[in-house]
Amino acid sequence: MTPLELVQQTSPPINEAGAAFYFHPDTLARGKELGLDGFRFYFLGRGGVLGDVDARVITSSFGYFHSSIVTKMWNSSRETMDPREAGRAYLACADALGTALLSDIEGLEAFNESAETVTDHADVAGMALYAGTVAEPLPDDPAARAYRNVVNHRELRGGVHLSAIVASGLTAAQAHAIRRPDDTAGFGWDPAPEVTSADRESLREVDVRTDAVLAQMFEVLSDSQRAGFADTIASISATLRTALA
Questions:
Q1: Which listed site, 27, 105, 145, 228, has its alpha carbon 20 to 30 Å from 181?
Q2: Would you tell me how many other CB atoms lie within 10 Å of the CB of residue 80?
Q3: How many CA atoms lie within 13 A of 77 on its CB side?
Q4: How far apart are the first and last CA of the chain?
Q5: For the chain, what is the mean pLDDT?
Q6: SS3 label, residue 189
Q7: Do the beta carbons of residue 55 and residue 75 sit within 8 Å?
Q8: pLDDT tens across 121-166, in order?
Q9: pTM reported for the whole predicted model
Q10: CB 225 within 8 A of CB 114
Q11: For residue 29, what are the contacts with CB-CB under 8 A and spacing of at least 6?
Q12: What is the DSSP string of 100-123?
């Protein structure tokens, strides 16, 4: 399996699995304990790894939300809780989900070694949200650690993809409107930005470029490590889909 084939095969399940804890009932319950509703815990928890920063920093890092949504959610949330503490509490929810649902999967230790080899070598330039997330200490429990690595790899691709969007000349709002046309208002874009056939082609080129950049990062793995990484991602994805259906 080539690095490019690995990226193309695993990116969709990583994207889905890495977000599974965001609005999981246990995450929502933990947010409520902390005085935060689900949406505010998402913003303060996911962005909290960046510290007590101005809302514009979160707008930059998240990419796809209108600044008015980010400013409202971020500023009201950090009045309730310190962002760094919220970030750690949010990732603890991810760890708990991993422990609860992934402990029976085989090969987690090897997967963790491979996943961390990639993140240890990845260039964090221009990817603040990924850098902040991956800088948080990993849990010792293999299942929790495996899920955290999935979360980290989701942020890795997200950072690369957002950078590629900006470099293409598209706006993040246009990219979001193309990819999720039924969810523009929820992200603050109402009316939705106009997109053309040329914009759609540009986003396809962005996807190709994103895959190519990520593939370079997976060159540090051996053939057997790539195969094992792909197999474990498939198992994690299938397990989460079944458990959370």
A1: 27
A2: 14
A3: 33
A4: 30
A5: 97
A6: coil
A7: yes
A8: 999 999 999 999 999 999 999 999 999 999 999 999 999 999 999 9
A9: 0.97
A10: yes
A11: none
A12: HHHTT-TTHHHHHHHHHHHHHHS-
Number of compact structural domains in the chain: 1
183-193: average pLDDT: 94
Q: Taking a C-beta distance cutoff of 8 angstroms, is the pair 69, 188 a contact?
A: yes
Q: What are phi and psi of 33, to 5 degrees?
A: -60, -30
Task: Tell me whether residue 6 is exposed, middle or buried, using C-beta atoms within 10 angstroms of its C-beta: 0 to 12, 13 to 18, 19 or more.
Answer: buried
DSSP3 helix / strand / coil % (the chain, rounded to 5) = 75, 0, 25
DSSP calls for 57-104: HHHHHH-SS-HHHHHHHHHHHHTTS-HHHHHHHHHHHHHHHHHHHHTT
**What is the token pair recorded at 182?**
């039924």
C-alpha distance from residue 238 to each of 10, 131, 145, 168 (Å):
12, 28, 18, 34
d(CA 193, CA 186): 13
Residue range(s) defining the domain that contains residue 157? 3-244
Buried b (16+ CB within 10 A) or exposed e, 195-214: beeebeebbeebbebbbebb
Section 179-207 average pLDDT:
95
